[in-house]
User: Fold this.
Amino acid sequence: MSVAPLVRRVTVCRKVEAASGPLGLPYTARGIETTIRPPVGGAFPYAEQELWLFVQYADGQGTHPVRFELVRQRLETEDPVVAFDLPPIHMTRGRFFVLNRGYRLALVPFPEPGIYEFRIRCGNNAGCDEIRLEDTA
Assistant:
C-alpha cells in the first residue's frame, strides 16, 4: 500500500552533510539561513551560487515524486520563481519511518528583494521554509 509521506521539516542552509553509514543516520545542516544579503552594490536579479535544503519526510510508504518550488511571497499573492522535480523518495520501513534528505540547489534565482518560500511537495503534502533577501544597494 502506497502512502504519501508528510513533509515534516524543510530548512534552508549553506550545507547538508550526511553521516557515513546506513541510510537514515543523522544529517547535519550547517549555516542555517534566515536572511541573505547579496554583495554590496549587487544588482537584481541576483543568483545565489549555492544553497542546500534539509528535508525530513515521515509516515509514508512506497515511492513518491518530489517537487521543489521557489516562490516570492507578497502581501496577498505569490509569484512563482522556479520549480523542478527532485529525485523520488522510497520509504520501505513502515509507516513510522523518518527519511532525511539533503538537496543541493545551484544558482538560486532571486528577481528582487523580499520574502521567498522554499517549498517541497510530495504527493498532496507540502512543507516549506522562508528566507528574506535584502537589498544592499
